[in-house]
Amino acid sequence: MSTKGKVITCRAAVAWELNKPLVIEDIEVDPPKPGEVRVKILWTGVCGSDAGAMLGKFPEAHFPFVPGHEAAGVVESVGSDISEFKEGDTVVPLWLSQCEQCDFCKSPKTNVCGKLIATSKLGVMVDGTSRLRCRGKTLHTFLGVSSFSQYTVLDGSAVVKVNPSAPLDKVCLIGCGVPTGYGSAVNIAKVEKGSTCAVWGLGTIGLAAVMGCRDAGAARIIGVDVNPAKFELGKQFGVTEFINPKDHEKPVEQVILEMTGGLGCDFTFECVGNINTMKSAILGSHLMWGKSVMVGVAPGGHEIPVEYKAIWLGRSITAGLFGGYKPRDSIPKLVNQYMDKKLSVDEFVHHTRSLEKINEGLDLLKKGETLRTVIKMH
Asked: In the list 216, 236, 328, 361, which could disulfide-bond 373, CB 3.0-4.6 Å?
């Protein structure tokens, strides 16, 4: 029976309160309005940003809301003026839109689209309303996606078609974690062959950055993490040396300087989202030409405590969203690279859970016992 044009009742994981477990609820999902697409979510990854939002680390999360932003599924129905998508198309939702019409989208200097910046921060659609409800209350969206729901509605600029033959339980990770880390190395830093790199935080994004450094030809890749088990895991992705800050009384940047003859690394990547590790990554980069990429997201209002002279002689600091990839242009290509075995994704999936056990996936992530848990939504 067709659901086109009808309100769909489905299951979703709802964050009702700050720092409380998700609650599995029956929610109502309205039909898409003009310019929108309703997607049946088949698989979704559990990302650190979802956990952080539930803890109140991101102002973009407005309670109550449905988390989730790293997903894959199929188009259920489209708004009246949508011609690019049709029912049954295999798609990846985008937390970073690409409208192809704004000044940002037309520029090769950025991959950030201006269309949904304001509304996605408020947890609503472009018209200022939500398509999700539960127990008579409006539910906010998260990053314009809310993939912890079996169905969700997205702006047409926040959806992209991908190879229908791709395994969606793996491809969902191309919606966030893997490109964010990988692109930070190959697009933002532009890691050079023979260079020395260091990566703080060996979770999914950090190990994807390691993988990008490896594929770019880095000679040395130093992994920094407080979990000693991450060294053996990191070797699979390209880590050549490992530092556990707990094993040293001196700051990590001092350890790195000693490992590099007092010079520092050509490229450093902070993938934790902590201002102290950000400082360490900057000071651990090469004094004259080191480039530090801030990949992790620190809570709003925090400042990196770095003295001006630390960058005076040539160090540079940069950051970027989604690894510098323009999502609608790049995700289909990344999926095809994965299908051609030129991009590793399977190695990041450590656990699979049902929607009813999604809190287990969050717990595994918080304990550092998984890279990604993927949730089977149907």
From this structure: 361
Task: Kindly give the pairing relationship between strand 267-270 and strand 291-294.
Answer: parallel
Amino acid at 283: L
Say if CB 277 and CB 199 are below 8 A apart.
no
- d(CA 335, CA 170) in angstroms, rounded, equals 10
User: Cβ contacts of residue 265 below 8 Å, gap of 6+?
Assistant: 195, 196, 197, 198, 222, 256, 284, 285, 286, 290
Instruction: Please give the model's pTM, rounded to 2 decimal places.
Output: 0.96
CA 366-74-363 angle, to 5 degrees, is 10
The torsion defined by the Cα of 153, 156, 159 and 165, in degrees rounded to 10, comes to 100
Mean pLDDT by 10 residues, the chain (378 residues): 93 97 98 98 96 88 97 97 97 98 97 95 96 97 97 98 98 98 98 98 98 98 96 97 97 97 97 96 97 92 90 94 98 98 97 98 94 97
Q: What domains does the chain contain, in order, with CATH numbers? A: 8-161+345-376 (3.90.180.10), 181-321 (3.40.50.720)
List the one residue out of 33, 199, 53, 209 whose CA is nearest residue 131.
33
